[in-house]
Amino acid sequence: MKLSIPLRTRRWDDEIARLDPERDYEAIVYALANHVFPFEIIAAMEIAQLRTFTIPSISKLLHATGQYEREGPKRLDDTKAILNEIHRPGLESRASREMVEHLNRIHGLYRISNDDFLYTLSTFVFDPILFIEKWGHRAMTEKEKDAFYFLYRRLGELMHIRDIPESRAAFFAWRQDYERRAQRYARENEAVARGLLVAVQSLLPPALAPYIESVVVLLTEDDGFRAALGLREPDPNLARFLHALLAVYRRATRHVSLYEHRDFGETEIYSYYPTYPSGYDRLRLGPTKVLEILAKKGAAQAVAGE
Hints:
By secondary structure, the protein is mainly alpha-helical. The protein contains 14 helices and no strands. It has helices at residues 11-17, 25-36, 38-52, 56-65, 67-87, 94-108, 114-135, 142-158, 168-182, 187-201, 212-220, 223-229, 236-253, 288-305.
């Protein structure tokens, strides 16, 4: 039996080079997430969730709801599924707008500051960029970085987030300033972060689960992030091993791409939702208690309109 090694070509780099990031941001990010940097981007998006917990005003709200501590795996599945349902059909489609409005209704039940919305939005723009700069098989181009900014700026507009900075550079400067002002340790940060880490551990083989905290710290290489979440410094021997492993990964993925000819988003790895083994109702995604409140409000409004 002949072993076929899927070699990386310039197919997707050339496709992206033909596109305009301000107009074709969805196509560029789609190519990056499904073919060029699939594992890097999905890992970065999980870290982006953790990064939001470094802001006490965000983590205190999440801790009060207990979503990550009590329903961690469901919260992971809901987040991934909601983003997929928003992005897959295209932001300007009816299905995507319906999903964004569903998300807005969920958020509308909480008192969330515009700055916290902005900071959360910034993590989806910059965490993939920062992660790929450290661990990707090549550097991202300015066009690719801009595509992330324009994509999430548009999503922010649809979510009615105000005062989104008018350029990627300005947005990054805002994020750095906000972290200086707002990022600090709080016990709620650590509680919510550990809830998410336990949820991730439940998805891993038992032999790997104990190392997830150290791996996250090593992948971010950000002391402010680590301290704000109360995470421990990893063992130096583990750090050396992981850096060596990542160096091998970077070299290998310069030449080999498992997703050169198929979409990562259509694989079992990406489409695995342990909370929803039989599939999900797209407009029933979200925290259980919140969905119950929204259902009661909808029923009351229907009665009032009769």
